[in-house]
Every structure is written in C-alpha cells, then in structure tokens.
Amino acid sequence: MGQLFAALEYLHSKQISHRDIKPQNFMIYKPNDLSCIKMIDFGLSKDYSQGQVMHTLSGSPYYMAPEVFLQNYNSKIDIWSMGVVLYIMLSGKVPFPGRTEPEIIYNVIKGDFHFDYSAFNAISSECKDFIKKCLIREYEQRYSATEALADPWIQKHFQKQAPNHLKEGTIGENGVSQ
C-alpha cells in the first residue's frame, strides 16, 4: 500500500488523477517479489491542471467515491478507491455491497461500512483507522496521498526508497524503461 500511495502522491503532484484504482490495475514487477508493485491502466486518468474539479462519471462502481456519482470531484477519489482496495484485500468483502448496480451506488453514496467480518479480528486498530481516513464520505476531510503516506500505519510498514531495479538504472523514476 505504501508503494501505491507513493505512486498516487507522484501522480497528484503532477495534477493527474488515476480515476480507476482497483486490484486489476496493479502488477507485481517480478514474480514472487512484492518489493515493487506497479500501478497500471491509465486509460481513465485525467490531467486536472486546468481545474481542480472533474465531472466525468468514470471508474468501477465498487471502487468509486460517492462524489463521482454526483459528477463533481477531485483527485481524492483515488484515495477512496485505495481504501476500498485495502478493505477488500484484508477481508475478501466489499465495504459497500449490493446485488444490483443501483444498490451498490446507493450504498457507496450513503458511505456506511463496518469491520464486523471475522477477517478484521486480526487487523490492527491502526490499520482500521487508516481505512476509515481513506473512506471518509466528505472528501474535504479525506486523506490526501501525502497525508496517507504520513499515517503511522503506513510509516510502520513502508520505507520510501527506490527499489533495486531503480538503483540499477533499468527503470526510470517515472516507471518507464530506459
């Protein structure tokens, strides 16, 4: 998660929002090596340098922030989606379930979720607190990528350093092969 939030911090510093954060859009750089996770599929990404507010309905409903459905949002939608991803990774459940797309959308907009699944019994309160800060319904109060990286739970488990393949010069800092 630290690597992915670092990628988001970089994207957001360049005023780009990914807008389609979901597990399918992450790749492991080398088989069986979690030291380098890549964020992929920038087909829905948006340069918002001309204005902080975006309006296009885009993404996958389970991972979309409530404000996307209102078509008035900023880059913090990526933080919401990362919170959903982490919740799913830890529990195997979606935080905002539904049997139909309208039911899913209703539950996302409502923004109520819980940690009542048995999988969360083994999860630290710091991690649950981190998820809560990513899934705050009011985006003004939601973490930014920089704030997420500074969270004690992330700091405890993530050291921001260049993976070995960056040090060797085979991949540039922007993730492009050189």
Can you offer a commentary on this structure?
With 178 residues, the chain is mainly alpha-helical. It has helices at 2-13, 66-69, 77-91, 101-110, 125-134, 145-150, 152-157, 164-167; strands spanning 16-17, 26-30, 33-39, 46-47. It has a single domain, classed as Orthogonal Bundle (Transferase(Phosphotransferase), domain 1), CATH 1.10.510. The strands form two sheets. A two-stranded antiparallel ribbon has the order 1-4. Helix 3 runs antiparallel to helix 5. The longest helix has 15 residues, at 77-91.
Task: Give me some keywords for this one.
single chain; 178 residues; mainly alpha; Transferase(Phosphotransferase), domain 1; two-stranded antiparallel sheet; 8 helices; 4 strands; disordered C terminus
Which class do the helix and strand fractions yield? mainly alpha
Here the CATH topology equals Transferase(Phosphotransferase), domain 1
Biggest sheet: strands, sense, closure? 2 strands, antiparallel
Query: What is the typical, i.e. mean, pLDDT?
Result: 88
Number of domains: 1
- The oligomeric status of these chains comes to single chain
Residue ranges: pLDDT <50 for 5 or more in a row?
A: 162-178
What value does the Rg take, in angstroms?
Answer: 16 Å
Q: Could you say what the CATH architecture is?
A: Orthogonal Bundle
The CATH homology group name? Transferase(Phosphotransferase) domain 1
Q: How are strands sequenced across the largest beta sheet? A: 1-4
Short description:
With 178 residues, the protein is mainly alpha-helical.
